[in-house]
Specification:
Layout lengths: L1 E5 L7 H11 L3 E5 L7 H5 L2 E15 L9 H5 L5 E4 L8 E4 L9 H5 L5 E16 L2 E8 L7 H8 L7 E5 L6 H7 L4 E6 L3 H17 L2 E7 L7 H8 L4 E5 L3 H8 L4 H4 L2 H19 L7
Parallel strand pairs: 1-8, 1-9, 2-7, 2-8, 9-10, 10-11
Antiparallel strand pairs: 3-6, 4-5, 6-7
Helix pairs in contact: 1-11, 5-6
The structure holds iron/sulfur cluster (2 copies).
One iron/sulfur cluster binds next to helix 4.
Length: 291
Amino acid sequence: MIISIASGKGGTGKTTVAVSLALSIDNVQFLDCDVEEPNAHLFLKPRISRTEKACLLMPVVDETKCRLCGKCRDVCEYNAIAVLPASQTKNSHVLIFQNLCHGCGACSLLCPSNAIKEVDREIGVIEIGEKNDMEFIHGRLNIGEAMSPPVIRQVKKHISMTKSVIIDAPPGTSCPVISAVKGTDFCILVTEPTPFGLNDLILTVELLRKMNVQFGVIINRSDLGNDEVEMYCIKENIHVLMHIPFKKEIAAACSQGIPLVKAFPEYENSFRQLFIQIKELMKGNNHGKKS
Ligand code: SF4
Ligand code: SF4
């Protein structure tokens, strides 16, 4: 089973939940796909045993073959290619904006002159290790790089179908979250009972429904704020899987890199029950709606 943990915005306690769930069940593989800012390792403290380069296939134009037809520019959906006219210092040529290129390969495929080849460009690293019997993998996007989905996909290539896979997804509702959550069996949405929390929860629920991924909600700091998140979940028939009340001691433990279930062992049973609850919900397979 593959469970992703996501939230519409950062700082809701997503990693706290992901790490706590992973530490409460057996035979776990933990994937930190928040590759722009991975921080699960700060709590799990895995021993990293090997690394892999994370690369994106990047087009390179052979100017001796290019006829400046512009087909590569026209086909690029990300506006990553320009055909520049001649200047005083340089002849007409094709310019590729590396930070806009998604490495989709369309330009090299459609170039009629076979003038584009693809080369690996390193954009990050994948680190693989373990913590006790838990397998741990995370990706790190290089500073200044914009394309996290290829790094996330490379982390997910390591998914083991013989384990319970926990994926810590990036926050938000854009491409990186889609890359992390896609193909997972269930998504836990972590939110907080504030107007911002509700706004981002609504966006994430819409996204997951479009993606057809089953989900439930955990309300963190549940005794603060208002009841609008709770009312929204009732109205939308969404399972609220767990409430985690605010405690200064929880915040203090997290700030020291101590997982919630280690600081408060009574939570271990709650997370074990959460796992059982998710398995039961999946049997019903009602895509986040209560039966
Ligand atoms: S499609 Fe090929 S030949 Fe045409 S401009 Fe691009 S690189 Fe040059
Ligand atoms: S590989 Fe795709 S995204 Fe990159 S320049 Fe070519 S068409 Fe554009």
